[in-house]
Amino acid sequence: MARLDALDVKILNALQKQGRMSNADLADAVALSASACHRRVQRLEADGIIRDYVALLDPRKVDRRTTVFVEITLSGQSDEILDAFEQSVKRIPDVLECHLMAGTADYLLKVMARDTDDFARIHRRHLARLPGVAQMHSSFALRTVRRTTALPL
Predict the structure, then answer these.
(1) Residue 70: beta bridge partners?
(2) Can you tell me the distance from the alpha carbon of 84 to that of 132, in angstroms, rounded to the nearest whole number?
(3) What is the pLDDT of residues 60-88, one digit of tens each?
(4) What do you get for the CA distance between the two ends of the chain, in Å?
(5) Phi and psi for 4 in degrees, rounded to 5?
(6) What's this model's pTM, rounded to 2 decimal places?
(7) Can you tell me the distance from the alpha carbon of 7 to that of 31, in angstroms, rounded to the nearest whole number?
(8) Which CATH class, in words, describes the domain spanning 59-140?
């Protein structure tokens, strides 16, 4: 794990809140010279700590109002079954996250749909065709209380 000093943490926290800020604004925010700040950001990028820069969309404004969490239990735990499932789920554009779990389900998926009819389409065309699935349970989020992409540092 990379070592982060207090200035690195300030830079990362600022960029997690506003990734498009200019280097000059970032340097001001963390009380560094622009050149020193730029070098630190370049190092954080080269070390893979800053992986990418993205635009975060408002799901409601792009007609993805329905969040569904899908618990999946597979028919077995062999590498072949796990690999086949993982390769297939990666090809479903509506699945934002897929996590291998410890507990009652083997995988937990986060799916974004327009509405319940759209989720039914996703289920029929994609989820029901995933290899190795023994059981599937879907839970619809009624309201999102907190959503962030910022990691606590």
Answers:
(1) 109, 138
(2) 8
(3) 999 999 999 999 999 999 999 999 999 99
(4) 13
(5) -115, 130
(6) 0.90
(7) 9
(8) alpha beta
